[in-house]
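We now fix the convention by which a protein and its fold are recorded. Think of the row as the fold of the chain written in a discrete alphabet. Here is one such record, which you should read through line by line.
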Amino acid sequence: MSEWREVALGEVLTLQRGFDITKREQRPGRVPVVSSSGVSSFHDEFKVESPGVVIGRKGSLGTVYYVTEPFWPHDTTLWVRDFQGNDVRYCALLLDTLNLEELDAGSANPTLNRNHVHTLPVAIPGVAEQRRIVAEQLRGDKAFFAISTEELISSDESYQVEFKSTARWNLREDRKDKRMEDAVVKTIAGMLNTDGGTLVIGVGDDGSVMGLEHDFDLVKPKNADGLVNWLTTHLLNSFTHTQAMRTRARIELLRGRHVCRVDVAGSSAPVFARMSDGQEVFWIRMNNSTRELPEREVEAYANEHWSRP
């Protein structure tokens, strides 16, 4: 068994502020510019080799991104400049457990100060144990963000993975549709009430990447930040703040198109979702779908599910 050390986070990894770049300065390319809400645009030059880890510094505070290709970390982020010999994915897992959003050092706009983050006390094992923990987590349900989206969509939908073509636009009827918005809430609520999971928006049932262009047209600004902001507000209107905070949304580029990935941690208490018609519904995941649990069964389910060790 590897010996664990109690140290400051700054002795495990070194964070650096991202690099400012305006839309006007960006040139056509395939290099992702990673902002606090995920991949927000693309450029023809990278600043950091992959794999890398980025966390939100402004806006989506403390959100962790594991990046698998050379990238440009935006000024709204902090990125890990030096892993100090530690496993990269383990560092991503570690950062995700620290509730970094609670270190807000800003006023009107939430801001994360790397000097404050570096002082956080953490316990860390040797590299061999780090890799064992990462392998174990990737086989379980606690680290979906550390599994690439490409890996997730290469398999079928499952108990903990679901795909949605859009978040707001009905492709069949060619119009905005609240039923699409409800479908997103329904899936996330089901995951909250079971064991968590990942929803990928912009991907068809067959795993084909369809993109988010229709949804971008329905938000302001019409880009990745606009969609993540809309989704955050939508979830806050559907759940309590505490419940909504158990979700992490980010935009990624897959096969030349944008997708929105939402990682959901299982809730520690029952969650009723407020739907667009005002009803509050208790959803659960069953196999590869989300089903409404009859009201008469909710208490029994809650007693069994949340009493598990």
